[in-house]
Structure formats: structure tokens, C-alpha cells
Amino acid sequence: MVTEQELRDALADAVDDPAAETYTLGLSDRALAEAREDARWWRPMTGRRAGARVRWVPVVAVGSAFAVAAAVGMAALGGGKGSGDGLPVQALSAPQTPPNPVGQEALTEFGAECFDGHGPKLDSTYVWDPATRRYHGVPGGVVTAFHPSPDGKYALVELGMPPQSWAVAGWSDAVAGRLTQHPVAGVSGLHWTADGKEVVTDLKRDVAKTTGGSVLPKQAADFYDPASGRRLAAVPIPQVVLDMDASRQWSIQQVQGDHDSAVFPLLSADGDRLEYLDAQGATIRTLEVRDGLPASEGKESDLLESAQISPDGRYLLETSGSVLAVFDLQARGERVGYLDVAGHTFSSWVGDHQIVTSVEKNMPPSGARTGHNPVYSVLSPELKVLQQAEFVLPSDPHGYCATWPMSWAPTGQFPGAFVP
Amino acid sequence: MDIEDERRFREFVGARSKALLQTAYLLTGDWEHSRDLVQGALAGLARKWGRLADPGHAEAYVRKMIYHAHVDRTRRLSWRRERTTATVPDTAAERSDPADLVAARRDVMEALRQLPPGQRAVVVLRYFEDRTDEDIAAVLGISAGTVRSQHHKALKALRVSTSITVNDTLKEEAAW
Hints:
Oligomer: heterodimer
Structural class of chain A: mainly beta
Distance between the termini of chain A: 42 Å
Largest sheet of chain B: none
Helix content of chain A: 10-25%
């Protein structure tokens, strides 16, 4: 235990760094330049949001240094030009790296943001196009997200954050912007069902405008036909599920199944149980693990924990705050991996027995800043590093631009895309 | 922004940038990111400078932007794509308790980073900036009750001994 005064002293010590002075130099100039530049870069949009400004808030991984346990390979992207002036770089080649027999999934989409007015001018999102074998910038200033279908042939595209519309098209058509958009409101996102035959709205929390508390904006899961955009069903979340979630002893996970067989998983706050309830509120399955991760609290006092089962159904991955844990469901739920990933952007299972995380390459002990490039790590179920690669834009060797992963798909479906 | 406004803006930045950077550093743990955060907030202030009713509110405005930008950034950091599987199966690593890190002063940054952003903000405002609950509530745009609740949870997570108690019947309010 420490005292409040010790905490106070520790915080004061932490910021007592002579390096701080250097970061104040030129701050006025840069802030004024950013204010002027920001007004110039605003791009008007068409449609419902004409006149409204959409700005992608930069996301940069923060946190502690990441211990590199394996050799780090450099994955450089070809293409790119200029240094902040002119039009955004539209297309980026995939890295020329040796074949990676370990990696099972390729990066199909990443976000980008550059700082300090240096580096190339980039679009907000880049998506892999199998036809051209390059990453293409998504123009228009709209925040998008591309979700590969389970077979990799189609893209579910969300437009706007939160989504204002969605569309499904063949992957190359989607990259080219040939989309038939379906308006949607009050949802935080959408995803494919596991069989790829339907699209369903996400169950996620939002902040209530009146109370500021954590709420589920939609108390139903909407299922859509991806081909026509027609809503197939609105499956209400069972009251027992809502009650369990509201009790803060459970946290609701993403709905599973299709509109005829929707299942609502809930993870206990102690991380030891995962219960599956059907649309009538009956418990149809229970998974138990040992030494589950207790939930940490999110910014709306909601429980920050999630559970994902590996594609082959053998492992359960729990995340809580900055910690990952993996449990072997074929070994009575024994915990087989535990890892503190503070500062990482956690991505998900990529393949049956692989998990990918990324972290911004931080300042090494020598003190030389190495920029914003992410280092991707592929982890085993035991959360040991199998493979690592730094994601570098050759036109930005100093790493003025940060990039982060947004979607992955099996390498066989997207040959040539970046595999960490 | 006219010449006089720009001069006063620069004067403000010169006087307060170090303090703003230090606060941002406690939120992010990295000086480069802190500078980005502060620069963005100052750019926002610059755009609004001519419309400020009272230039004395500039610092409060910037601090509020820093805290909110930090929370937004941290929220997007936790973005992830979740996979579903239609097949629900039919049935160590060395454990470490993050709270133990607080035992050493040199580990306080690590422990602080593991707090949710709302709790982290309250800790920084309380123990680095020495602000009252009402001030913290004004900066973060939340109620004083929520500040106290978040404060209590943060100290519990950091294992800081305190005489502070929180009414158990206090409604759990959102920090943001």
C-alpha cells in the first residue's frame, strides 16, 4: 500500500524530466499552423452529411516498451510520394518479404494518420485490392470499415462512425466504391454471421445523452440479407440478458447465430463463465474456465472484458483492460496463456491458433525516437511470440505517420497482402 | 486571429505549455504523444481564441480538450474486430497482479496506465493538479459524485491507502 502523499510525490517525480522542455519548443507555431491547415483540409461531403465535417481522430498506441522476444522483420510498403503536400497517396504496394509459413491471415485494411505536417499525405483508410495487389486509399473523407466475409469474397462496408449506412459488394467492387448503400441508424457497427449468409448489428454500449450512463442503444439485434439489404428480423435481446448485463456481474458479448437461431453470450465479471442464452432467454450452453480474467472498468463504468472463441472452437481468449488470457476448452478450461499487452492494439484471432497484436514502436533505451510505426506480433495460444514484423512506409522512414490494423483475412483469400 | 490575439495566444502557450505537457504525459506515458495531444488542443484553442468570452478560461478549455482527446484516443485503441464462430464447443502462465506495481514509486506510471482513462484523469487532476472534486467535475464534464466514485475506484485499483469513503448507495455514474 502507498499513501496519497506518496502517489502525489510519484506523479511529480514522473514528470520531472529535462526532456519535457524540448517538447515545448515551437509549440505555438505548430498549433497555429495546424489550426490554419485544418481549415484548409476540410473536404465537403455529399448526401445527408453535406456541410458536416468528418474528421478522423488520430489514434496512436501509447504505453510501455514491448519486449521483443523474437527477431523483428521489417515489412516495407512500396509506393508513396511527397512529404505532406498534394493529393493523398492513393495506392501502396504490399511489402516484399519472404514467404511467412507461420502467418495465417493477411492485413486487408489499415487506418493511417500523419503528425507534425511531415511524411506523406495519406487517406484515413487503406484497403487491399486483390485485383491490383495494392492497398488503395478510401477517398472522400468518410470513415469506413471493411469486413471480409468468411469466404473472403465480399466486403461488408460500414460508412461513417458510427455507421450511417452499410453495403455489401464483391471485394474489388467495394474497394472501387461501387456500393449500394443501405441507411442505418442507432447502431455502433455491423458484422457477418459466422456462415456469411447474413449481416447483423453489433451489440455495443454507448453513452446516454441524458444521464451519461452506459446503455445499449439498440435492445435488439437486426439481421439483414447482405444481397438486398432487406432486414430479415429484429431479434429482441431477452429481458433476462438485459438484466444480467445491467447487473454488472455479466457483460454481453456479440450476438451469434442467424436470425432464426440468435444466441446471446454473456461473460461473467470474474471471467470464469461464459453463458449462452437463446432468443427466449433460456441458457443453452455454459463454458467454465479456471483463473478467468476479472473485468476491468471502462470509461462509462461498463465492464471492459470480452471473450472470443478461436475459429476451431478449442480456445477461449479473454481480454480485460490491457491483459490477455487464453484458456484451453479441451483441457477443462485451464488457462494456458497470460500476457500484459498495455499499449497494444489488440486485433483478434487470426487463424485457428494465432492471435495478432500491434504496438507502436517506442523509444528504445538509447533514447532515440523511432517514430509511430507499429510492430505486429503473432502469438500462439500460450501467448508466446511466433512472429513479428514492423510495418514501415518507405516514404516515411522517420515514422511520422501512424498506422493501425482494421481487418484481417486468411492469406489464401488475399494473396500478396501484408502478413506479419 | 489578428496580431494582438496571436501575441496573447503565444504568450499563453509560452507560460503554460510545460504544465500542459506534464499533465498530458501523465495521461499518455510518452512525451511525443503528449506533445501531439497538447498541440491538437492548442490548435483547437487557436481556432476559438477570438471567440473566447474570457481569455482567462483558455487554460480550462485546453485542459478539457486534452482530457477528452485522450479518452477518445484510448477508446479507439481498444477497437478490435471480433470473430464469431457458429461452433460452440461442448466443455499458466504466471499470474501477476497489476496493483502490486504501485508498491514502488518508480512503477506508478505503469500502474496509472492500467487504469481506465476516466479514473486516470481523475487521479492526475487530483494528485498532480491538486484540484477539488468540483473543479475536476467541471474539467471532465461529469458530476462531482461521479468524480468521487471514480476517485475511490482508482485508489482501490492502485492500492493507495486513504481515509476516503464512498457512500455505497451512491448511484454508479458514468465518468464520461
